[in-house]
Amino acid sequence: MRQNSKGMTLANVRVVLVRTTHPGNVGATARAMKTMGLGALTLIAPEQFPSKLATDMAAGADDVLAQARVCATLEDAIADCVCVIGTSARMRRIAWPMLTPKQCAKHLLAEAAGGTVALMFGQERTGLTNAELERCQYVVEIPANPAYPSLNLASAVQIMAYELYTASLAGGAHAAPPTAEHGPASAEDMERLFEHLESVLIEIGFLDPANPRLLMRRLVRLFNRAQLDVNDYNILRGILTAVQESRGPKS
Ligand code: SAH
Fold first, then answer.
1. What distance in Å separates the CA atoms of residue 88 and residue 139, rounded to the nearest whole number?
2. 128 lines ligand 1 (CB under 6 A)
3. What is the Å distance from ligand 1's center to 47 Cα?
4. Span from the CA of 196 to the centroid of ligand 1 (angstroms)
């Protein structure tokens, strides 16, 4: 299939719906995506799928549903992604690095030039949990009535998909990611780094597993903000391994 560079970059954008409870929202999401040139839909543990209601709501976008990937866990859904952005209407205890919908579209398209990127949407009732938001480099809030900011899930997808589409028309898709020399670290790499960091911090007595407080969450945010490339990732893993080796074999 022939595609121009804009189409190819939009093709690298994956919409991820987390534990959707209402199948109608899955169908409406597929339709929202297809109208804006998006096709890659991943569903994490949907309550009902496939579903007739989803297919009805998708209308002419039932091909997006037919090709949707269903994953059991968030890790599976984003392992290969070079950038993960979450969406949320909720205020958090720790301020997450935030983007506007337009900034998000520009950033995602630039990153999509280097690999698959994910835009994540939470469950209808609860939204994205803090653990899910921790996997995100940024969080997007769609500006809305402060007294009632919670959009319908598929409406939120439609707004973000529209921003991506118009940004791709404006040519934002051509920018290479800032660390193109080595390629960005994937979500799976980052997960491995955080596990390694946490175990080293426990070994050296800096992190008390009985009283972890928000230390790991803050460190996750710090490293996500830095947008590591593969070389940065290898250096950090090497440092952590050297720390462990310098302490001698575990008894
Ligand atoms: N009570 C939940 C609302 C969930 S709405 C909450 O506070 O997060 C379902 C999903 O739609 C959200 O998880 C988010 O992905 C998206 N969404 C709804 N309103 C949004 C907004 N104003 N900005 C960004 N995303 C929004």
1. 7
2. yes
3. 18
4. 32
In a domain, 148, yes or no: yes
Q: pLDDT tens digit string along 113-136?
A: 999 999 999 999 999 998 999 999
pLDDT of residue 231 exceeding 80, the answer is yes
How many Å lie between the centroid of ligand 1 and the Cα of residue 195?
A: 28
User: Is 152 contained in some domain?
Assistant: yes
Alpha helices in the chain (DSSP H): 5-11, 23-35, 52-58, 62-66, 74-78, 101-112, 130-133, 153-169, 187-203, 215-225, 230-246
Count up the domains in the chain and report the number.
Answer: 2
Predicted TM-score (pTM) of the model is 0.81
Nearest to 71 by CA among 187, 166, 154, 179: 187
Q: Do residues 9 and 113 make contact, with C-beta atoms less than 8 angstroms apart?
A: yes
**Residues 214 and 94 sit within 8 Å (Cβ to Cβ):** yes
Ligand 1 in contact with 96 (CB < 6 A)?
Answer: no
Q: Which of 173, 205, 222 marks a domain boundary? A: 173
Tokens for 223? 């490293």
With a 6 Å cutoff on the Cβ, whether 138 touches ligand 1 is no
Amino acid at 251: S
Place of tokens 């440092």: 239
209 and 165 within one domain: no
User: Rounded CA gap, 189 and 230, in Å?
Assistant: 8
Q: From CA 15, how far away is CA 206, in angstroms rounded?
A: 37
Cα 152 to averaged position of ligand 1 atoms, centre (Å): 7
> Residue 226 sits in a domain of what CATH number?
1.10.8.590
pLDDT digits (tens, 9 = 90+) for 23-52: 999 999 999 999 999 999 999 999 999 999
Ligand 1 proximity of 141 Cβ (cutoff 6 Å): yes
